[in-house]
Design goal:
Layout: H1 13-22, E1 27-31, E2 37-41, H2 42-58, E3 66-70, H3 75-86, E4 90-93, H4 100-110, E5 112-117, H5 122-128, E6 137-140, E7 155-157, H6 158-163, E8 179-185, E9 193-198, H7 199-209, E10 222-225, H8 237-244, E11 247-250, H9 257-266, E12 271-274, H10 276-289, E13 298-301, H11 308-317, E14 321-327, E15 334-337, H12 349-356, E16 361-362, E17 367-371, E18 386-391, E19 414-422, E20 428-433, E21 438-440, E22 443-445, H13 447-454, E23 460-470, E24 474-483, H14 491-498, E25 510-513, H15 527-533
Parallel strand pairs: 1-11, 3-4, 3-5, 4-8, 5-6, 6-7, 10-11, 10-12, 12-13, 13-14, 24-25
Antiparallel strand pairs: 1-2, 8-9, 14-15, 15-16, 17-18, 18-19, 19-20, 21-22, 23-24
Helix pairs in contact: 1-2, 1-8, 2-3, 7-8, 9-10
The chain binds adenosine monophosphate.
């Protein structure tokens, strides 16, 4: 028997329609790229998105075309997303932190027809414009008064563009399986690969990630996504927030501790989300100024592992609940979220932090398992670690234009490239990227775990651990450290700090001090560069 329910397509335009109709008065507050704070609401955003969709169609954007954005989190970027997707086109978010050659490759590979960009990024696109033959127009996300002198060809002003329209635009009809978003993921080898989101996957992912045990945003919340919209759907918030009707606070170009604090405080933010480096800056600012976070209930942290010191500071010193999350571009991106299960709230602070330091448990729509090198499933005992495999409706089944070949195994599992443990209650803990794990005497050492402990050592600002070739053990860990401002911790002090906190055979064979640790465009430690930098390094134990 077939179900007798309506065939209501899961398309993202229904999300903004809902927000405008039922939460039209809820505000979006933006720190604009031009400077001042700007306030609007879902009703206005909806109208302006339709005006932009009208203008884009006039510029020739049709179903299936790819339109790119290179922009901060602002009201205009939000409008652009819904306008592009509402034209039946695909919104391709460009990460401005990528190298010029990578950007050229990505824009051409995706066949972007129009690029909408913030003022900040005009120089980046000017420098490569001659290598982007498919781009017909550039639209600068500003008003006439702020339009710069530019060498970008066929360049338009965003506010002028939408001013000429009345908004009487019907969203282009699409199938829920049609593409609506595109985000490239930069592997450490080979070219970046395009992850193609569908209307359906974005709607399902937005619903699932915002569950009560997940991000948990409600209509009464004020949500600040510091995580950029060019990082995979701003972790679901571009869709989840208007679904819930919560207010969105958009940080624009200023992501430093002081600017973020100002928004958290003045806009009474209750939920926020970003990678650990952002919170490091905020915590430093709070420590310097003695400020508190009275309005903030929850901070979602992911993208890299949350160091225990950070977790404890938020929870103990500022009474903010940390929601440790794990995900990747290919998962739309959220996979796991670290909310407690029954009884855990009553545990001691230390035990609760033991749980929270893990990356959380799979949300509904994400199937998960760990396997050994031969594909045999490993036990969920919190000890065995292996390849982390996932399956679900908002998980990539292939990359754009088939790059990278077949990405699913015969049973439809996607190998995340991460190595992890799963415990009896389903909490997952990342031990490493498969290619970063240190293989010492046939056993695996988790670089992430050592790094996260090392940053807890007084005088250590940042730490990275890589494997160095060793004649006897194959590889042994080298701890690379950036000292905190004004501090000069010694090798001895750092190793003594680690002693007893990790297994003896996990202890780094040496500590190297550097001024800076290289990061990728998404803020992760660039292990490949570090490995090259330390190629041929002689360990004292070799
Ligand atoms: P991206 O696709 O750029 O978001 O990168 C995804 C990768 O980031 C994952 O495969 C993990 O290696 C890493 N990652 C994301 N979240 C976490 C986390 N909470 N802890 C440790 N690693 C993480």
């Amino acid at each position: 028997m077939r179900g007798l329910m309506q065939d209501w397509p899961l398309v993202v335009t229904s999300v903004i329609d809902h927000a405008a109709e039922w939460h039209g008065e809820r505000e979006m507050v933006t720190r604009t790229v031009e400077g001042p704070i700007h306030r609007t609401n879902y009703a206005e955003l909806h109208l302006r998105a339709r005006k932009l969709a009208q203008a884009l169609s006039r510029l020739g954007v049709a179903k299936g075309d790819v339109v790119a954005t290179m922009a901060w989190n602002t009201h205009r970027h939000f409008e652009a997303w819904y306008a592009i997707m509402g034209c039946g086109a695909v919104c391709h978010t460009l990460n401005p932190r990528l190298f010029a050659e990578q950007l050229v490759y990505i824009v051409n590979h995706a066949e972007d027809k129009i690029v909408l960009l913030d003022l900040t990024f005009v120089p980046i696109l000017e420098a490569i414009r001659d290598q982007l033959p498919n781009v017909r127009n550039y639209v600068i996300l500003t008003d006439r008064a702020h339009m710069p002198e530019t060498t970008l060809p066929n360049c338009l002003c965003y506010e002028e563009l939408i001013d000429g329209e009345d908004g009487s635009f019907a969203w282009v009809e699409v199938d829920e399986h049609d593409a609506c978003g595109l985000c490239y993921t930069s592997g450490t080898t080979g070219n970046p690969k395009g992850v193609v989101y569908a209307h359906r996957s974005n709607v399902i992912h937005g619903l699932a990630a915002n569950g009560a045990d997940g991000i948990g945003a409600r209509s009464v919340d004020n949500v600040l996504p510091v995580v950029p919209m060019f990082h995979a759907n701003a972790w679901a918030l571009v869709f989840a927030a208007p679904m819930a009707g919560c207010s969105l606070i958009m940080p624009g170009a200023k992501l430093d501790g002081e600017s973020i604090f100002e928004l958290l405080d003045k806009q009474k933010v209750s939920i926020t989300a970003a990678v650990p480096t952002v919170w490091l800056m905020l915590l430093q600012h709070l420590e310097k100024t003695g400020a508190k976070l009275p309005h903030l209930d929850r901070v979602v942290i992911g993208g890299s592992a949350v160091p225990r010191v950070m977790l404890e500071k938020f929870e103990r010193d500022y009474e903010v609940e940390v929601m440790h999350a794990w995900g990747m571009t290919e998962l739309s991106p959220v996979g796991t979220l670290g909310s407690f299960k029954s009884g855990m709230e009553e545990l001691s602070f230390d035990r609760r932090m033991d749980i929270k330091v893990k990356q959380g448990r799979p949300m509904y729509t994400v199937e998960m398992k760990i396997t050994d090198d031969d594909g045999n499933e490993l036990p969920r005992d919190g000890k065995a670690f292996g390849h982390l495999l996932v399956r679900g409706p908002a998980i990539a089944s292939a990359y754009l234009k088939g790059e990278g070949g077949k990405v699913l195994d015969d049973d439809g599992w996607f190998d995340t490239g991460d190595v992890a443990t799963l415990d009896e209650l389903g909490f997952m803990q990342i031990t490493d990227r498969a290619k970063d794990v240190i293989k010492s005497g046939g056993e695996w050492i988790s670089s992430i775990e050592i790094e996260n402990l090392a940053v807890g050592c007084p005088g250590v600002a940042e730490a990275a651990v890589i494997g160095i070739a060793h004649p006897k053990w194959d590889e042994r860990p080298l701890l690379i450290v950036v000292a905190a401002e004004g501090a000069s911790p010694s090798k001895q002090e750092i190793l003594e700090y680690l002693e007893g906190k990790i297994a003896k055979w996990w202890m780094p064979d040496d500590v190297a001090f550097v001024d800076e640790i290289p990061h990728t465009a998404t803020g992760k430690i660039q292990k490949l560069t570090l490995r090259k930098q330390f190629e041929g390094y002689e360990l004292p134990t070799a």
